[in-house]
TrEMBL record:
Organism: Ramlibacter henchirensis
Family: Belongs to the BolA/IbaG family.
Listed name of the protein: BolA family transcriptional regulator
SUPFAM superfamilies (alphabetical): BolA-like
Domain of life: Bacteria
Amino acid sequence: MTASELRSLIAAGLPCEHLEVDGDGRHWSAVIVSAEFEGKRAIQRHQRVYATLGARMHTDEVHALSMRTYTPAEWASTPHP
């Protein structure tokens, strides 16, 4: 799987205002900004992203995914490089 493919999978299942994906083919990191995260704790946000990936998380197609998840308001108030 490529970063572009993983980004497309997440974006297809979760409306994102901002989405960055980086990794080596098995180990990934993502920055995800979505209004769907409003009122959700970090674990609930991560579960929502995992749900978009479905079986890919269980078949080892995506071995590891480290996430930073933000609401649009949180993202707007976070400094970015």
